[in-house]
Amino acid sequence: MYPLVGLNLLRLLSENLIADFHTTLERIDLAQLQSNPYIVHPVKLEQALMEGSYKKVWQARAEVPTPEYLFFMDILMATIRNEVASCAEKSYSSLPFDDAKSVLFFTSMDELLRFAQERRWAVSPSEKRITFPSTAENTRMFQGETIMKQTLAYARELERIV
Question: For residue 29, what are the CA distances in angstroms to 2, 22, 26, 36?
Answer without folding.
Answer: 11, 13, 8, 10
